Amino acid sequence: MERQPIQRHLEEKRAGFHELFFDLIFVYAIQIIAHVILHTH
Asked: pLDDT tens across 17-34, in order?
């Protein structure tokens, strides 16, 4: 059964959203770690 292009497009959009979400968490975590390191010395 062939997938519908619209459904595939929505899945790709959802995957892109997850990547963006993880990127935001990653940057946020790095900022917290950098903040802690800078303020402990």
From this structure: 889 999 999 999 999 999
